[in-house]
């Protein structure tokens, strides 16, 4: 279905409002962990499963999004995902036990896991190639804003009301989105019906095992049971990859990983996300443990960086449309290198303002890399393969983001912030070298 400019605008706005609300749900709960621990009388390791379980389900359903886009009317799909998220949120609000809270949280994770690659695929397909950088910059702005807003919203609601108010907030926003979506969301894609390969879905569950191993390794060490889970998961994923490459209608078209620029784009967007997620996790610890700030002020110290990230996302997208994606991403990786270098140098003086400016430079680097890399990858694919590309990028980005947090946690446990800053500095130097290999065919 063709969309005129007005309908396209409302279509995209509705998608982004829904995505913004769901993105807040990812970042908001960390502030509420102490409250959950007290309310349910459980340790932090158990409460952290509100995030870990959400992430596991999200990752395992991401590969389903291309099949769903091809076989389910997008309006029906979008409204269904919002309904599942609202239902999960209502379960959390009225849950008498933590186990019921987890059920609702897993339902939220399912909705987010399907929606994130799906809405990016749809936006990319309905946007002319020459405008994709700016539009995806807006997508990055929304996600960056949600990263900053989530902890603030939850902190205010916890201070004024209670933890259930956080989820009431999500519910009210998404009810408004649902009403808006009934009027603005259409099915803009040409669908190609296919049979769902159930065996591929089963084999893809290996992603859960890998992520479980990654998240539990710092807590338990390489126990025998964890190693068995990892080996079994790797075997399942190997079977998944083999099957995708050899059946007529695969769940994911992994062959696109051989396409020049797309393969590099996958790695670059992951490298960018690894730095971003690490900054958001370790800098509050740095501000509290090294600088001596309170938890409240350590959170507020992240706001300038997140605000800069949000503001630069659309600027970088427009610049990429004009000058090409390679130049923009090279700027981004130089910013990454400068930011991590300044953080490393600052360890000798531990100045608060230098730390805030350095972390802001790192997040500015993300604005020049993550969405431009995603757009570059999409531009290297035919439209029919964009859903598969978006799903691959989102899944790998999430897995490597989780790996980055584990690496940072292990390095912090074994030594200090010095090792963390050096590791991510080296990572972004390698990524800069990869970015130099891009064949930038501007606006093609």
Q: What do these coordinates show?
A:
Helix 7 (132-160) packs across helix 17 (370-379) and helix 12 (262-291) packs parallel to helix 18 (386-414). Helices cover 81% and strands 0% of the residues. The relative contact order is 0.13. It has helices at residues 5-40, 44-47, 49-61, 65-71, 74-94, 98-126, 132-160, 164-184, 198-204, 206-220, 224-246, 262-291, 295-300, 303-323, 325-346, 352-367, 370-379, 386-414, 417-435. It folds into 3 domains: 1-190, Growth Hormone, Chain: A; 197-250, no CATH class; 254-444, MFS general substrate transporter like domains (Growth Hormone, Chain: A), CATH 1.20.1250. The chain is mainly alpha-helical. The chain is globular and about 55 Å long. Residues 11-443 form the Major facilitator superfamily (MFS) profile domain. It comes from Pediococcus claussenii (strain ATCC BAA-344 / DSM 14800 / JCM 18046 / KCTC 3811 / LMG 21948 / P06).
CATH superfamily (homologous) name of the largest domain: MFS general substrate transporter like domains
Strand percent estimate:
under 5%
What overall form do the CA principal axes indicate? globular
Number of helices: 19
SSE pattern:
HHHHHHHHHHHHHHHHHHH
> Unreliable runs, pLDDT <50, ≥5 residues?
none
- Compute the average pLDDT: 83
Domain count: 3
Main sheet makeup: none
| CATH architectural arrangement of the largest domain | Up-down Bundle
Query: What's the number of extended β-strand segments?
Result: 0
Rg to the nearest angstrom? 21 Å
Helix content: over 70%
């Amino acid at each position: 279905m063709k969309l005129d400019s007005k309908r396209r605008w409302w279509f995209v706005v509705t998608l982004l409002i829904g995505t913004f609300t769901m993105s807040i749900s990812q970042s908001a709960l960390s502030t509420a962990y102490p409250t959950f621990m007290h309310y349910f009388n459980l340790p932090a390791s158990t409460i952290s499963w509100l995030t870990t379980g959400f992430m596991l389900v999200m990752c395992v359903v991401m590969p389903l999004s291309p099949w769903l886009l091809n076989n389910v009317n997008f309006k029906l799909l979008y409204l269904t995902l919002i309904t599942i998220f609202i239902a999960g949120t209502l379960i959390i609000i009225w849950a008498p036990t933590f186990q019921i809270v987890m059920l609702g949280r897993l339902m939220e994770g399912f909705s987010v896991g399907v929606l994130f690659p799906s809405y990016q695929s749809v936006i990319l397909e309905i946007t002319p190639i020459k405008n994709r950088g700016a539009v995806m910059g807006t997508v990055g702005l929304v996600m960056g804003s949600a990263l900053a807003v989530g902890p603030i919203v939850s902190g205010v609601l916890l201070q004024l009301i209670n933890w259930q108010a956080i989820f009431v907030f999500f519910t009210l926003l998404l009810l408004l989105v649902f009403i808006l979506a009934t009027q603005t969301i259409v099915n803009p894609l040409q669908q190609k019906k296919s049979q769902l390969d159930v065996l591929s879905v089963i084999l893809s569950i290996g992603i859960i095992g890998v992520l479980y191993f990654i998240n539990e390794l710092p807590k338990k060490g390489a126990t025998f049971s964890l190693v068995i889970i990892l080996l079994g998961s790797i075997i399942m994923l190997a079977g998944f990859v083999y099957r995708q490459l050899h059946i007529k209608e695969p769940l994911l078209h992994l062959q696109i990983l051989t396409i020049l620029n797309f393969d590099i784009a996958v790695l670059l967007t992951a490298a960018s996300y690894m730095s971003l997620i690490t900054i958001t996790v370790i800098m509050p610890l740095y501000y509290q443990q090294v600088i001596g700030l309170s938890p409240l002020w350590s959170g507020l110290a992240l706001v300038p960086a997140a605000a800069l990230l949000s503001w630069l996302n659309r600027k970088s997208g427009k610049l990429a449309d004009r000058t090409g994606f390679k130049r923009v991403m090279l700027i981004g990786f130089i910013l990454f290198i400068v930011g991590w270098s300044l953080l490393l140098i600052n360890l000798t003086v531990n100045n608060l303002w230098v730390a805030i400016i350095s972390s802001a430079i790192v997040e500015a680097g993300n604005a020049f890399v993550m969405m431009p890399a995603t757009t570059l990858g999409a531009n290297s694919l035919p439209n029919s393969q964009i859903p598969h590309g978006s799903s691959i990028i989102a899944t790998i980005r999430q897995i490597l983001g989780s790996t980055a947090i584990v690496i940072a946690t292990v390095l912090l446990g074994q030594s200090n912030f010095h090792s963390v800053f050096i590791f991510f500095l080296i990572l972004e130097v390698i990524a800069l070298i990869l970015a130099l290999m891009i064949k930038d065919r501007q606006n093609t």
